[in-house]
Amino acid sequence: MALKRLASLNRRFQHDKHFETEYRTVLQEYLALGHMTKVNTNHSDANGYYLPHHAVIKASSQTTKLRVVFDGSAPSTTGLSLNDALHTGPKLQEDLFCILIRFRSHQYVLTDDIEKMYRQFLVRPEDRKYQKILWRSASGETETYQLNTVTFGLSAAPYLAIRCLKQLAEDEDHRFPHAAQVLQRDFYVDDALTGADTKDEACALRTELAKLQSSDQSLRGHLCMPSS
């Protein structure tokens, strides 16, 4: 399945060079950030799982207009997909209605989002063989890579990312108690909707959240403003 999808992707590349450039740029970023690693194995190696991949284009996006999506629901030669074999984990996500009610109660509000949230969390090295992909180099060689981080497209990804975020809150609670509470209660997936009663408190909270960047989280888009 992964090889067939790659062949289809390469046919599209032949007709749309701009699309090919954008796609290659995304995967090159994966390599540069250490989110993907080349492995020396033949693509016929059945040890693990090969994720087919394709592009989703969102022209309105202010950050990444082309996103590479990995298909964990594609069946393998056994008839089962990786998602069929994964335990998705319990629901950890806070209820959006409760988050919004708390957000509207603040005099000053802040919004945050974690850039590339899933890719902030590493997968154990011994489990990365289940996240292999095929990719054709610029020279035309079909090569095998493995994804090193939690991967969008896998059924367990939402649980893993949110669970890691909550663990970060527990680990950093002694240093950043207010920011830790935001991580526990005021995040909806990768977006935070929170605030405070005074401008000084809101700005102090913003500072605490910013310091969590030292914990390998890319928090961006802080906004401090009076609520109407």
Specify the overall morphology: elongated
Radius of gyration: 20 Å
Low-confidence stretches: 218-228
Q: What's the helix count?
A: 7
Structural class of the helix and strand makeup? alpha+beta
What is the average per-residue confidence, as pLDDT, rounded to a whole number? 88
Largest sheet at a glance? 5 strands, antiparallel
Q: How would you spell out the order of helices and strands? A: HHEEEHHEEEHHEEHEE
Question: What share of the residues does DSSP label as strand, in percent?
Answer: 15-25%
What percent of residues adopt helix (DSSP H or I)? 25-40%
Question: What is the end-to-end distance?
Answer: 53 Å
**Would you report the number of β strands?**
10
Domain Reverse transcriptase: 103-208
GO biological process, one term: DNA biosynthetic process
Pfam family, one: RVT_1
InterPro entries: DNA/RNA_pol_sf (IPR043502), Rev_trsase/Diguanyl_cyclase (IPR043128), RT_dom (IPR000477)
